[in-house]
Fold this protein.
Amino acid sequence: MSERVPSRDELLAMAYVDGELGDEARAELERRLASEPALRREVSALKKLEVLARAAAPREPQDHEWAALAREPLQRAGLALGWTLAVAGVLVLVGGGLWVLFTSDAPLWLKLGLGALVAGGALLFLAVLRARLRVLPHDPYTGVER
Amino acid sequence: MMLATTDQLPGRAVIEVLGLVRGSSVRSAHVGRDVLAKLKNLVGGEVSEYTQLLAEAREQALDRMIAEARARGADAIVGLRFTSTDIGDDAAEMLAYGTAVKLG
């Protein structure tokens, strides 16, 4: 059986995550992190492993029950259907409400105000969602369970 | 980096106290987790969504505290404590703090 020899960058990333680099080497690696996505991914993956290992706790009996329940088709179907209906309900209510408002005799200022509020809220939400999705791959804490 | 809740480390001498180090993190659950957690409130039992939220904040706060201690050249953090507060309805803050020291 042969083991793959880690590359120099992989060894550097491991030493960085373990806090074993000196000031100069750490500063140099942090400069490289800003411009090298592959190295950034390597450090993120190692950091995630380190955090998970540190937070690992023995599994309790209830964990096995939760895991078994999550695999049951009835439970999965119930959750999927529940979420689908809830999201569809929100979309229909918001869309229908806006349609009713804009086709009604309500004053123009009310239509414009509510339209701007909904559009602004949607844009702000998309901006926040985009930022979160950008950061998510480098967030090592999302896998911690307890 | 050695972490201890005690003020002394048996068998090791503290040769320099570098001062207070701390790390904090405020994290929130996404709306999907929040909805399920609220529903679990109706039936009781562990709300694992929030257990996970606190654990994430705890680990992040711990890492930030360790990073500050490393930047100061510490070998250990003694007197480690955690504290938490609520910020808003669905966000949790964890603060980890302790004293960074150099060991002989």
About this structure: The beta strands of chain B are 2-3, 14-28, 76-87, 91-103.
